[in-house]
Protein backbone atom coordinates (compact mmCIF):
# COMPACT_ATOMS: atom_id res chain seq x y z
CA UNK A 1 0.00 0.00 0.00
CA UNK A 2 2.82 2.35 0.87
CA UNK A 3 4.53 1.64 -2.40
CA UNK A 4 1.33 2.49 -4.33
CA UNK A 5 0.99 5.89 -2.55
CA UNK A 6 4.64 6.80 -3.23
CA UNK A 7 4.23 5.82 -6.88
CA UNK A 8 1.18 8.09 -7.25
CA UNK A 9 3.03 11.03 -5.63
CA UNK A 10 5.97 10.52 -7.95
CA UNK A 11 3.74 10.52 -11.03
CA UNK A 12 2.04 13.78 -9.89
CA UNK A 13 5.41 15.48 -9.35
CA UNK A 14 6.53 14.46 -12.86
CA UNK A 15 3.31 15.86 -14.40
CA UNK A 16 3.62 19.16 -12.43
CA UNK A 17 7.26 19.56 -13.47
CA UNK A 18 6.32 18.98 -17.12
CA UNK A 19 3.53 21.57 -17.05
CA UNK A 20 5.76 24.20 -15.37
CA UNK A 21 8.53 23.65 -17.91
CA UNK A 22 6.03 24.03 -20.74
CA UNK A 23 4.80 27.34 -19.28
CA UNK A 24 8.36 28.70 -19.01
CA UNK A 25 9.02 27.85 -22.64
CA UNK A 26 5.80 29.55 -23.74
CA UNK A 27 6.62 32.73 -21.76
CA UNK A 28 10.10 32.86 -23.24
CA UNK A 29 8.83 32.72 -26.79
CA UNK A 30 6.10 35.40 -26.14
CA UNK A 31 7.07 38.79 -27.77
CA UNK A 32 7.66 41.74 -25.39
CA UNK A 33 5.25 44.73 -25.69
CA UNK A 34 6.72 47.78 -27.46
CA UNK A 35 6.28 51.04 -25.48
CA UNK A 36 4.94 53.93 -27.55
CA UNK A 37 7.25 56.97 -27.69
CA UNK A 38 5.87 60.07 -25.91
CA UNK A 39 6.14 63.18 -28.09
CA UNK A 40 5.60 66.46 -26.24
CA UNK A 41 3.77 69.27 -27.98
CA UNK A 42 5.61 72.60 -27.63
CA UNK A 43 4.91 76.23 -28.49
CA UNK A 44 7.49 77.57 -30.92
CA UNK A 45 8.41 80.86 -32.56
CA UNK A 46 10.53 81.74 -35.58
CA UNK A 47 13.36 84.21 -34.91
CA UNK A 48 13.31 87.51 -36.73
CA UNK A 49 16.01 89.91 -35.52
CA UNK A 50 14.82 93.51 -35.23
CA UNK A 51 15.63 96.74 -33.41
CA UNK A 52 14.72 96.21 -29.73
CA UNK A 53 14.29 99.32 -27.53
CA UNK A 54 15.95 98.99 -24.13
CA UNK A 55 13.39 100.28 -21.61
CA UNK A 56 14.59 100.70 -18.03
CA UNK A 57 11.90 100.26 -15.39
CA UNK A 58 12.32 102.22 -12.16
CA UNK A 59 10.05 102.91 -9.20
CA UNK A 60 9.71 105.85 -6.89
CA UNK A 61 7.33 108.08 -4.96
CA UNK A 62 6.27 111.59 -5.90
CA UNK A 63 7.44 114.70 -4.09
CA UNK A 64 6.36 118.26 -4.77
CA UNK A 65 9.00 120.08 -6.78
CA UNK A 66 8.40 123.24 -4.75
CA UNK A 67 7.93 122.73 -1.03
CA UNK A 68 8.54 124.94 2.01
CA UNK A 69 8.95 123.96 5.62
CA UNK A 70 7.46 126.71 7.76
CA UNK A 71 9.50 127.77 10.80
CA UNK A 72 8.97 130.62 13.25
CA UNK A 73 11.75 133.19 13.60
CA UNK A 74 9.96 135.16 16.31
CA UNK A 75 7.94 134.39 19.42
CA UNK A 76 4.30 135.18 20.06
CA UNK A 77 0.72 133.95 20.09
CA UNK A 78 -0.72 132.53 16.87
CA UNK A 79 -3.57 134.85 15.84
CA UNK A 80 -6.61 133.41 14.10
CA UNK A 81 -7.34 134.58 10.57
CA UNK A 82 -9.96 134.24 7.86
CA UNK A 83 -8.71 130.78 6.88
CA UNK A 84 -7.99 127.96 9.29
CA UNK A 85 -4.44 126.69 9.53
CA UNK A 86 -5.28 123.07 8.68
CA UNK A 87 -3.85 120.43 6.31
CA UNK A 88 -5.50 120.67 2.91
CA UNK A 89 -6.07 124.43 3.13
CA UNK A 90 -5.11 126.26 -0.07
CA UNK A 91 -3.41 129.65 -0.23
CA UNK A 92 -2.69 131.95 -3.14
CA UNK A 93 0.71 133.55 -3.67
CA UNK A 94 1.33 136.36 -1.16
CA UNK A 95 -1.60 135.42 1.08
CA UNK A 96 -0.85 135.33 4.81
CA UNK A 97 -0.59 131.77 6.13
CA UNK A 98 0.31 132.57 9.74
CA UNK A 99 0.00 135.79 11.74
CA UNK A 100 1.74 136.02 15.09
CA UNK A 101 0.60 138.70 17.55
CA UNK A 102 3.10 141.57 17.17
CA UNK A 103 1.29 144.40 18.93
CA UNK A 104 4.03 144.91 21.52
CA UNK A 105 6.83 144.72 18.98
CA UNK A 106 4.91 146.99 16.59
CA UNK A 107 4.78 149.66 19.29
CA UNK A 108 8.57 149.48 19.65
CA UNK A 109 8.99 149.90 15.89
CA UNK A 110 6.69 152.91 15.84
CA UNK A 111 8.62 154.45 18.73
CA UNK A 112 11.92 154.03 16.87
CA UNK A 113 10.43 155.51 13.69
CA UNK A 114 9.10 158.47 15.66
CA UNK A 115 12.54 159.07 17.16
CA UNK A 116 14.09 159.02 13.69
CA UNK A 117 11.55 161.52 12.46
CA UNK A 118 12.19 163.81 15.44
CA UNK A 119 15.95 163.60 14.91
CA UNK A 120 15.63 164.73 11.31
CA UNK A 121 13.16 167.47 12.20
CA UNK A 122 15.58 168.79 14.85
CA UNK A 123 18.35 169.44 12.32
CA UNK A 124 16.18 171.21 9.76
CA UNK A 125 16.89 174.75 11.14
CA UNK A 126 20.64 174.08 10.95
CA UNK A 127 20.28 172.74 7.40
CA UNK A 128 18.41 175.94 6.37
CA UNK A 129 21.29 178.07 7.65
CA UNK A 130 24.41 175.99 6.92
CA UNK A 131 23.26 173.82 3.95
CA UNK A 132 20.55 175.73 2.13
CA UNK A 133 21.21 173.78 -1.10
CA UNK A 134 20.14 170.46 0.50
CA UNK A 135 17.38 171.81 2.74
CA UNK A 136 14.59 171.15 0.23
CA UNK A 137 15.76 167.56 -0.25
CA UNK A 138 15.45 166.78 3.43
CA UNK A 139 12.24 168.75 3.75
CA UNK A 140 10.68 166.60 1.02
CA UNK A 141 11.87 163.50 2.87
CA UNK A 142 10.08 164.63 6.04
CA UNK A 143 6.94 165.36 4.07
CA UNK A 144 6.95 161.80 2.64
CA UNK A 145 7.63 160.22 6.02
CA UNK A 146 4.56 158.20 7.14
CA UNK A 147 4.64 156.34 10.46
CA UNK A 148 2.10 153.83 9.16
CA UNK A 149 4.22 152.90 6.16
CA UNK A 150 7.70 151.49 5.61
CA UNK A 151 10.44 153.99 6.37
CA UNK A 152 11.61 155.57 3.09
CA UNK A 153 15.23 155.49 2.07
CA UNK A 154 17.35 158.42 3.29
CA UNK A 155 18.18 161.07 0.68
CA UNK A 156 21.50 160.62 -1.09
CA UNK A 157 24.24 162.79 0.39
CA UNK A 158 26.07 164.88 -2.18
CA UNK A 159 28.97 166.29 -0.15
CA UNK A 160 31.33 165.30 2.64
CA UNK A 161 30.15 168.18 4.85
CA UNK A 162 26.55 167.04 4.53
CA UNK A 163 27.59 163.46 5.25
CA UNK A 164 29.56 164.44 8.37
CA UNK A 165 26.73 166.64 9.59
CA UNK A 166 23.99 164.02 9.13
CA UNK A 167 26.12 161.13 10.45
CA UNK A 168 27.22 163.18 13.45
CA UNK A 169 23.61 163.55 14.51
CA UNK A 170 23.24 159.68 14.54
CA UNK A 171 20.55 159.90 11.89
CA UNK A 172 22.09 157.21 9.69
CA UNK A 173 22.53 154.75 12.58
CA UNK A 174 18.97 155.42 13.77
CA UNK A 175 17.69 154.83 10.24
CA UNK A 176 19.31 151.38 9.98
CA UNK A 177 18.09 150.49 13.46
CA UNK A 178 14.56 151.26 12.32
CA UNK A 179 15.02 149.23 9.13
CA UNK A 180 16.27 146.29 11.21
CA UNK A 181 13.20 146.48 13.44
CA UNK A 182 10.94 146.64 10.38
CA UNK A 183 12.58 143.55 8.90
CA UNK A 184 11.97 141.63 12.09
CA UNK A 185 8.39 142.92 12.31
CA UNK A 186 7.71 141.42 8.86
CA UNK A 187 8.61 137.97 10.26
CA UNK A 188 5.51 138.05 12.46
CA UNK A 189 3.54 137.30 9.29
CA UNK A 190 4.39 134.28 7.11
CA UNK A 191 3.01 134.66 3.58
CA UNK A 192 2.67 131.99 0.89
CA UNK A 193 5.69 132.19 -1.45
CA UNK A 194 3.57 130.63 -4.20
CA UNK A 195 0.06 129.32 -4.71
CA UNK A 196 -0.22 125.94 -3.04
CA UNK A 197 -1.66 123.78 -0.31
CA UNK A 198 -0.81 123.16 3.33
CA UNK A 199 0.13 119.50 3.85
CA UNK A 200 1.14 119.60 7.51
CA UNK A 201 0.03 121.81 10.40
CA UNK A 202 1.80 121.45 13.74
CA UNK A 203 0.19 124.38 15.59
CA UNK A 204 -3.30 125.75 16.06
CA UNK A 205 -4.73 129.24 16.52
CA UNK A 206 -4.05 130.56 20.02
CA UNK A 207 -0.87 128.49 20.49
CA UNK A 208 2.25 130.12 21.86
CA UNK A 209 4.84 129.95 19.10
CA UNK A 210 8.52 129.92 19.97
CA UNK A 211 11.42 131.01 17.83
CA UNK A 212 12.80 128.10 15.78
CA UNK A 213 9.62 126.02 16.11
CA UNK A 214 8.43 124.13 13.03
CA UNK A 215 4.90 125.15 12.10
CA UNK A 216 4.06 123.00 9.08
CA UNK A 217 4.78 122.26 5.43
CA UNK A 218 3.52 124.00 2.30
CA UNK A 219 3.76 122.61 -1.26
CA UNK A 220 2.88 123.48 -4.83
CA UNK A 221 0.57 120.62 -5.97
CA UNK A 222 0.85 121.42 -9.68
CA UNK A 223 4.33 119.98 -10.33
CA UNK A 224 5.87 116.83 -8.86
CA UNK A 225 9.21 115.07 -9.12
CA UNK A 226 10.07 111.40 -8.78
CA UNK A 227 13.56 110.28 -7.79
CA UNK A 228 14.75 107.05 -9.41
CA UNK A 229 18.04 105.16 -9.19
CA UNK A 230 19.45 103.85 -12.48
CA UNK A 231 22.40 101.51 -13.02
CA UNK A 232 25.64 103.28 -13.88
CA UNK A 233 25.66 101.33 -17.17
CA UNK A 234 23.07 103.74 -18.51
CA UNK A 235 24.49 106.89 -16.94
CA UNK A 236 25.63 108.30 -20.30
CA UNK A 237 22.27 107.49 -21.92
CA UNK A 238 20.07 109.58 -19.59
CA UNK A 239 19.52 113.07 -20.92
CA UNK A 240 17.67 116.05 -19.46
CA UNK A 241 14.41 116.71 -21.29
CA UNK A 242 13.87 113.11 -22.39
CA UNK A 243 10.23 112.01 -22.29
CA UNK A 244 9.31 109.31 -19.77
CA UNK A 245 6.14 107.24 -19.54
CA UNK A 246 4.87 106.66 -16.00
CA UNK A 247 2.09 104.48 -14.70
CA UNK A 248 0.60 103.50 -11.36
CA UNK A 249 1.23 100.07 -9.89
CA UNK A 250 -2.17 98.81 -11.05
CA UNK A 251 -1.32 99.76 -14.66
CA UNK A 252 -4.66 101.56 -14.92
CA UNK A 253 -3.41 105.12 -15.44
CA UNK A 254 -0.47 106.52 -17.39
CA UNK A 255 1.22 109.91 -17.14
CA UNK A 256 3.70 111.76 -19.32
CA UNK A 257 6.83 113.07 -17.64
CA UNK A 258 10.33 114.16 -18.55
CA UNK A 259 13.81 113.93 -17.06
CA UNK A 260 14.36 117.27 -15.32
CA UNK A 261 17.71 116.60 -13.62
CA UNK A 262 20.43 113.94 -13.53
CA UNK A 263 22.87 113.70 -10.63
CA UNK A 264 26.47 114.25 -11.64
CA UNK A 265 27.89 111.61 -9.28
CA UNK A 266 27.41 107.86 -8.89
CA UNK A 267 26.50 106.34 -5.53
CA UNK A 268 29.61 104.46 -4.42
CA UNK A 269 27.59 101.92 -2.42
CA UNK A 270 24.94 100.91 -4.96
CA UNK A 271 26.77 101.98 -8.15
CA UNK A 272 23.64 103.76 -9.34
CA UNK A 273 22.96 107.27 -10.59
CA UNK A 274 19.97 109.34 -9.50
CA UNK A 275 17.62 110.87 -12.04
CA UNK A 276 14.67 113.15 -11.33
CA UNK A 277 11.51 112.91 -13.42
CA UNK A 278 9.12 115.86 -13.53
CA UNK A 279 5.43 115.14 -14.03
CA UNK A 280 2.27 117.25 -14.00
CA UNK A 281 -1.29 115.96 -13.65
CA UNK A 282 -4.32 116.98 -11.64
CA UNK A 283 -4.84 113.43 -10.33
CA UNK A 284 -1.36 113.14 -8.81
CA UNK A 285 -0.72 113.50 -5.08
CA UNK A 286 2.46 113.71 -3.06
CA UNK A 287 3.64 110.32 -1.88
CA UNK A 288 1.98 108.44 -4.75
CA UNK A 289 4.08 105.48 -5.92
CA UNK A 290 4.69 105.30 -9.68
CA UNK A 291 6.68 103.20 -12.12
CA UNK A 292 8.76 104.91 -14.79
CA UNK A 293 9.86 103.45 -18.13
CA UNK A 294 13.00 105.16 -19.38
CA UNK A 295 13.99 104.70 -23.01
CA UNK A 296 17.72 104.11 -22.60
CA UNK A 297 18.79 102.98 -26.11
CA UNK A 298 17.96 100.62 -28.98
CA UNK A 299 19.74 97.31 -29.64
CA UNK A 300 20.05 96.34 -33.32
CA UNK A 301 19.75 92.74 -34.60
CA UNK A 302 18.31 91.36 -31.37
CA UNK A 303 15.30 89.47 -30.05
CA UNK A 304 13.37 89.62 -26.78
CA UNK A 305 12.17 86.46 -24.98
CA UNK A 306 11.00 85.44 -21.51
CA UNK A 307 13.77 85.16 -18.94
CA UNK A 308 12.81 81.59 -18.01
CA UNK A 309 13.72 80.44 -21.54
CA UNK A 310 17.37 81.37 -21.02
CA UNK A 311 19.44 78.56 -19.48
CA UNK A 312 22.13 79.14 -16.85
CA UNK A 313 24.74 78.19 -19.46
CA UNK A 314 23.71 81.24 -21.56
CA UNK A 315 21.94 78.95 -24.06
CA UNK A 316 18.39 78.55 -25.36
CA UNK A 317 16.49 75.56 -26.77
CA UNK A 318 15.85 75.36 -30.51
CA UNK A 319 13.83 72.85 -32.55
CA UNK A 320 15.64 70.93 -35.32
CA UNK A 321 13.96 68.05 -37.16
CA UNK A 322 11.46 67.55 -34.31
CA UNK A 323 14.29 67.35 -31.77
CA UNK A 324 15.34 69.86 -29.12
CA UNK A 325 18.83 71.30 -29.34
CA UNK A 326 20.68 74.17 -27.65
CA UNK A 327 22.61 77.10 -29.09
CA UNK A 328 24.80 79.74 -27.46
CA UNK A 329 23.39 83.27 -27.21
CA UNK A 330 24.58 86.65 -25.95
CA UNK A 331 22.30 88.36 -23.38
CA UNK A 332 22.59 92.17 -23.56
CA UNK A 333 19.84 93.33 -21.19
CA UNK A 334 17.70 91.81 -18.44
CA UNK A 335 14.38 93.16 -17.17
CA UNK A 336 12.12 91.66 -14.53
CA UNK A 337 10.46 89.25 -16.99
CA UNK A 338 12.31 89.64 -20.30
CA UNK A 339 15.82 89.27 -21.70
CA UNK A 340 17.26 90.77 -24.89
CA UNK A 341 19.47 88.35 -26.86
CA UNK A 342 21.90 88.65 -29.75
CA UNK A 343 23.67 86.07 -31.96
CA UNK A 344 20.45 84.17 -32.75
CA UNK A 345 20.23 83.54 -36.55
CA UNK A 346 17.10 84.61 -38.41
CA UNK A 347 14.71 81.77 -39.14
CA UNK A 348 15.75 79.73 -36.10
CA UNK A 349 12.80 77.97 -34.48
CA UNK A 350 12.93 78.51 -30.72
CA UNK A 351 10.67 77.62 -27.83
CA UNK A 352 8.03 80.22 -27.04
CA UNK A 353 7.17 78.70 -23.66
CA UNK A 354 9.33 76.65 -21.33
CA UNK A 355 8.96 72.83 -21.31
CA UNK A 356 9.36 71.02 -17.96
CA UNK A 357 12.17 68.46 -18.07
CA UNK A 358 13.39 69.58 -21.50
CA UNK A 359 16.80 68.27 -22.69
CA UNK A 360 18.84 68.25 -25.86
CA UNK A 361 17.65 65.40 -28.11
CA UNK A 362 14.12 65.37 -26.72
CA UNK A 363 11.47 64.51 -29.34
CA UNK A 364 8.89 67.28 -29.67
CA UNK A 365 6.04 68.34 -31.89
CA UNK A 366 5.36 72.03 -32.64
CA UNK A 367 1.86 73.16 -31.66
CA UNK A 368 -0.40 74.03 -34.58
CA UNK A 369 -3.30 76.40 -34.09
CA UNK A 370 -6.16 74.67 -35.90
CA UNK A 371 -8.38 77.74 -35.74
CA UNK A 372 -5.84 79.76 -37.71
CA UNK A 373 -5.43 76.89 -40.18
CA UNK A 374 -9.19 76.80 -40.86
CA UNK A 375 -9.29 80.54 -41.38
CA UNK A 376 -6.52 80.31 -43.90
UniProtKB/TrEMBL annotation:
UniProt cross-references to SUPFAM superfamilies, sorted A to Z: HlyD-like secretion proteins
Origin: domain of life: Bacteria
PANTHER family on file: HLYD FAMILY OF SECRETION PROTEINS, MULTIDRUG RESISTANCE PROTEIN MDTA
Protein name: Efflux RND transporter periplasmic adaptor subunit
Species of provenance: Lacinutrix iliipiscaria
